[in-house]
Amino acid sequence: MILNYIWIGFFLTGFLVALFRVIGYYFRDFFALHLGIVFDKTDLNVFSAMVRSTFEMAETSISIILILAGVMTLWLGFMRIGEKGGAVQLLARAVSPFFRKIFPEVPKDHPAIGAMLMNITANMLGLDNAATPLGLKAMEELQTINPKKDTASNAQIMFIVLNTSGLTIIPISIMGYRLAAGAPNPSDIFLPLLLTTFFSTLVGLVAVSVVQRINLFHYIVLIYLGGLSLLVTMILVAVNSMESAQSDLLVAFMGNFILFLIVIFFFVLGIRKRINLYDEFLTGAKEGFSVAVKIIPYLVAMLVAIGVFRASGAFDYILTGISKFFGLFGFDTEFVKALPTALMKPLSGSAARGMTIEIMHNYGAGSFAGKLACIFQGSTETTFYTLAVYFGAVNISRTRYTVACGLIADFAGVIAGIFIGYIFFS
């Protein structure tokens, strides 16, 4: 329902803004004298530009899908090898001690623990096809120990917020979109995105823990969070202390090295389990191609709507207003160009994806705005959609403070993304 309103809103707002520009031209003397708004003959061409943008963005959508199909085919093939080799189970065992501390109300050997671990680790590896069924299973298991069946339990809220904070290790689709947009190094956002999603997840965890009075100072929790926080701090300090050319080389090397190392790790796991790597790769690759094809209608619908919105001039008015506001405080306002993705992500994944692609199309995949939009796109999940699916599956109507904590994590991801973007790409 939210996506329906957003989609219609782009067209209606675009039409009204375009109509205002046409009327403004014929009454340009009045607007210039009393409101200080200047109109010229280009405003009369606004409807032509809007119609032209529908064809251009539809063509852009298909071009993106052709490249994305190859990327999704490749990486979901690799992911299939990792999944069958036991990567999810291995990662789940690694974080199991930490999970038992942040879900104190769930019995030690309860089936919900295993389902939650598998869901979140599958999400971290980008295995959305496996993550969603596991997440729904986890919610069902948590519901069995929920004393109020229509009200979200503490454990369910923690689980949902960890999902919406979107901790991801391998951003497959983001790299595919960057490749399609002509980025010289599509994986250059890998490390900044990983750091940003760490902060959004950490803030979401802390927010829920404060409300639920979970002891985050237990030595096991401190080992996990402290160790990761120290590593992230060291990386940020190291990159910030380097000259721009050196940091660009380091980021490019580390991002590509880690990605290839993960692939080799998946291969080693598969060989150890004596699975047929080639056959498993083909099975996952077929699924990746079908996923890319299914995206076509959604991508065309959203990109055309956003194209109309931008061609009308509405985008420019909004961004100019936000830029002037932050400019009053002396801030650099380049980040404002990427904010539409950040604002859309909690509401609609499709709209945020369309915004990200449109920003790269308009400013360039290698621009600061293009890179920052990709960081926003990959650093958090679609909060309201996740809540609707997971709570709806177990008929929970009273979500308590879930939305608040989820949005706090989203906001933290935006702030962290801006700072990390400037550290890595300015």
Summarize the structure.
With 426 residues, the protein is mostly helical. It is built from 18 helices and no strands.
Keywords:
mainly alpha, single chain, 426 residues
Strand content: under 5%
Q: Tell me, what's the shape?
A: globular
Helix and strand string, N-terminal first?
HHHHHHHHHHHHHHHHHH
Number of strands: 0
Structural domain tally = 1
Distance between the termini: 38 Å
SS-derived structural category: mainly alpha
> What's the rounded overall pLDDT mean?
84
Q: Count every helix, treating DSSP H or I runs of 4 or more residues as helices.
A: 18
Radius of gyration: 23 Å
Please describe what this structure looks like.
This protein has helices at residues 2-26, 28-34, 46-85, 87-102, 111-124, 128-143, 154-164, 172-180, 190-212, 219-241, 244-272, 277-311, 314-327, 339-344, 349-363, 368-379, 383-393, 402-425. It has 426 residues and is mainly alpha-helical. The protein has one domain (56-425). The two termini are 38 Å apart. The mean pLDDT is 84.
Task: Compile the SSE list and pairings.
Layout: H1 2-26, H2 28-34, H3 46-85, H4 87-102, H5 111-124, H6 128-143, H7 154-164, H8 172-180, H9 190-212, H10 219-241, H11 244-272, H12 277-311, H13 314-327, H14 339-344, H15 349-363, H16 368-379, H17 383-393, H18 402-425
Helix pairs in contact: 1-12, 3-8, 3-11, 3-12, 4-5, 5-6, 6-17, 7-9, 7-17, 7-18, 9-16, 9-18, 12-15, 15-16, 16-18
